[in-house]
Amino acid sequence: MIDTSAFQGKTAAYFTLGCKLNFSETSTFGQLLQEMGVRTVAEGEYADICLINTCSVTEVADHKCRQAIRRMVREHPGAFVVVTGCYAQLAPDAIAGIEGVDLVLGANEKADLIQHLSRAWSEELAGKHTTCSITGTTAEIRSFAPSCARGNRTRYFLKVQDGCDYFCTYCTIPFARGRSRNPSIESLVEQAETAARQGGKEIVLTGVNIGEFSTAEGLGLLELVKTLDCVEGIQRFRISSIEPDLLDDELIAYCAESRAFMPHFHIPLQSGSDAVLRLMERHYDTKLFAEKVDTIRRYMPDAFIGVDVMVGARGETPEYFDETYRFLDSLDITQLHVFPYSERPGTRALRIPYIVSDHDKRLRSKRLLELSDRKTRAFYAKHIGTTAEVLLEKGTHGKAVMHGFTRNYIRVELRGQAPDNHLVHVVLGDFTHNKTALKITLP
After folding, report:
1. Mean pLDDT confidence for 316-326
2. pLDDT tens for each residue of 286-300
3. Tens digit of pLDDT for each residue in 337-392?
4. Contact 102, 116 (CB under 8 A)
5. Alpha carbon of 153 to those of 21, 191, 335, 417: distances in Å?
6. Distance CA 382, CA 99 (A)
7. Which residue stretches, if any, does this entry annotate as coiled coil (predicted)?
8. Torsion of CA 118, 123, 127, 132, to 10 degrees
9. Domain locations in the chain as residue ranges
């Protein structure tokens, strides 16, 4: 039994690095602490508890984690500092060695974060606490921490899966989050129904490798999608990211005719060179990827298709990068998420002899980002003057601007204020000054 009295009236500050899955988990931790009487710290106020949820997808991410931890310690002197997430699992000793850190929790222990925090907090109050690192091995990561939260956002993020069985040569995520696992469809439906009762209109399905969703009864992602589609009150669902080899044509066809699943897909490619894909030990080739894009376009001509692509991976010669560029240029996609390859300790990619310089990585990133801008602006431009349904979201802090997204994920901006979390029909106007959104006015 957790003694919540010690937490009454306390304040907490949160910082999340990395993916939407991390954001969802942090928001859930915040909800649990709020139920124990802990409020989120106000601007300029010192927090009693600091929670940092870390990422370790790249070396840059590791560096940002260390910076964030030190900044939180500095900005909230005397706070009880808890660090969890992927970096905490992979480098617990390095984090525990940072001055001011009190508790480090690995991936398996994160599911019981509140219990670990309560125990350590009691020791702190009794003057017996020292920095504690609680992490297990990758093989011991079996727990699943449910999460369906929106934090200070409009959309909810529902965690439907965790871990990954793919073990691509460049990636540490399976070591940080363990093997693929997921809860029951019934439990996920219950969480979605709770979000609906709380006024939620849109839910994003999150996970590490969502396409691996599978129940003991042999039900997969398609069955989950069909069941969630029936949840009353939720008017929009989005699938955050799905591997191309796990994106079934039947799932695409269902989403095209569904009540609430949006015409919006995000598909990791990583490389447009089959030779590099083999070095990465990905589970598909460029032919299959192109077929998936074509299938989406056949069922949903106006769908938003985002693509992850890595530049400068070991083995990516200039010729292989040119293959990637030509392949991406040929695809009818909407946007690229471009990120440079980063050396990760313990990965098999380190055995590949050809190394791309940081200078070349920057040049390649620049070329692909320019290609992405061209494709995104062309996609937006063809929708100018059309009518669209938009879910309005809170504006950027300190600015009299609201934003939102159409069903097919076109970002829009509204000058002035209006109720957020409302679906409105608008005419899409011209580009904003920075060409990252389309202007709208309310009818």
Report:
1. 98
2. 999 999 999 999 999
3. 999 999 999 999 999 999 999 999 999 999 999 999 999 999 999 999 999 999 99
4. no
5. 14, 17, 23, 16
6. 53
7. none
8. -100
9. 4-140, 147-382, 386-441
In the structure encoding, which two tokens stand for residue 373, read together?
Answer: 């801008």
CB atoms within 10 A of CB 443: 8
Name the token pair of 14: 């949160």
Helices (H), 36-184: 59-75, 86-90, 92-96, 113-125, 173-177
| 187 three-class SS | helix
Give the residue ranges of DSSP H helices in 310-410. Answer: 318-330, 358-381
CA distances 353 to 54, 59, 283, 337, 350, Å, are: 30, 19, 22, 26, 8
Give the chain's radius of gyration (CA, Å). 22
What's domain 386-441's architecture?
Beta Barrel (2.40)
- The predicted pLDDT at position 395 comes to 66
- Decide which of 304 and 154 is more confident: 304
Give me the pLDDT at residue 394, please: 77
Query: Residue 178: exposed, middle, or buried by beta-carbon count in 10 A (0-12, 13-18, 19+)?
Result: buried
The tokens 């219990």 sit on which residue?
Answer: 115
Is the pLDDT score of 398 beyond 70?
A: no
Give the fold, CATH level 3, of 147-382.
Answer: pyruvate-formate lyase- activating enzyme (3.80.30)
Average pLDDT, the chain: 94
Tell me which CATH code domain 4-140 carries: 3.40.50.280
* Closest by CA position to 373, among listed 330, 434, 312, 319: 434
Contact of 438 with 413, CB cutoff 8 Å = yes
User: Which ranges in 246-285 belong to alpha helices (H)?
Assistant: 249-257, 274-280
Rounded-to-integer distance, Cα 9 and Cα 55, Å: 30
Residue in the structure block whose two tokens are 């504006």: 395
What is the phi-psi region of residue 37: left when phi exceeds 0, alpha when psi lies from -120 to 50, beta otherwise? left
| 147-382 and 4-140 share a CATH fold | no
C-alpha–C-alpha distance, residues 166 and 282, integer Å:
8
